[in-house]
């Protein structure tokens, strides 16, 4: 099963997401801030990353920018999630290199569903994921 890295400074959110994703069969690693997340990524390559926007030391936007500069991380699926859901927040996340933006108001079931879609495990989304990866490869 896929390996997911969650980067968030909120311990309760980390525990909830870790539990939900492990229950769905994923291997999960957690980091409590951006620098720790980048350090983890330098030693393991997760299949997908979920990162909060508002964190001390480094925002989720900066984490995403730095991750995208790392060799082999240019097209790794990355979800930015936040309690803030203004159009500018979503656009800033996508401009930084996020694959998707989701609100923290999603239920654990909805989060798992988003993860499955981005990993191509949802049969209805496999074609669009392949098209997205092809598009990224051409950029």
What sort of overall outline do the alpha carbons produce when their principal axes are compared? globular
The fourth-level CATH homologous superfamily is Response regulator
Whole-number tally of structural domains = 1
The secondary-structure class comes to: alpha/beta
Distance between the termini: 29 Å
Q: Which series of helices and strands comes N to C?
A: EHEHEHEHEHH
Description:
- The chain has helices at residues 11-23, 34-43, 60-69, 87-96, 108-118, 126-138; strands at residues 3-7, 27-31, 48-52, 78-82, 100-103.
- It is an alpha/beta fold and 139 residues long.
Short structural summary:
With 139 residues, this protein is an alpha/beta fold.
What would the keywords be for this entry?
single chain; 139 residues; alpha/beta; Rossmann fold; 48% helix; globular
Ordered list of secondary-structure elements with their pairings:
Blueprint: E1 3-7, H1 11-23, E2 27-31, H2 34-43, E3 48-52, H3 60-69, E4 78-82, H4 87-96, E5 100-103, H5 108-118, H6 126-138
Helix pairs in contact: 1-5, 2-3
């Amino acid at each position: 099963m896929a390996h997911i890295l969650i980067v968030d400074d909120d311990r309760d959110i980390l525990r909830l997401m870790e539990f939900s994703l492990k229950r769905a069969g994923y291997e999960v690693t957690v980091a409590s801030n951006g620098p720790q997340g980048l350090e983890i990524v330098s030693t393991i390559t997760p299949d997908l990353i979920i990162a909060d926007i508002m964190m001390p030391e480094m925002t989720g936007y900066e984490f995403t920018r730095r991750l995208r500069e790392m060799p082999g991380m240019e097209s790794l699926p990355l979800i930015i999630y936040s309690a803030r859901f203004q159009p500018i927040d979503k656009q800033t996340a996508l401009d930084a290199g996020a694959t998707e933006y989701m609100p923290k108001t999603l239920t654990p079931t909805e989060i798992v569903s988003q993860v499955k879609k981005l990993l191509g495990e949802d049969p209805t989304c496999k074609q669009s994921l392949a098209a997205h990866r092809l598009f990224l490869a051409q950029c």
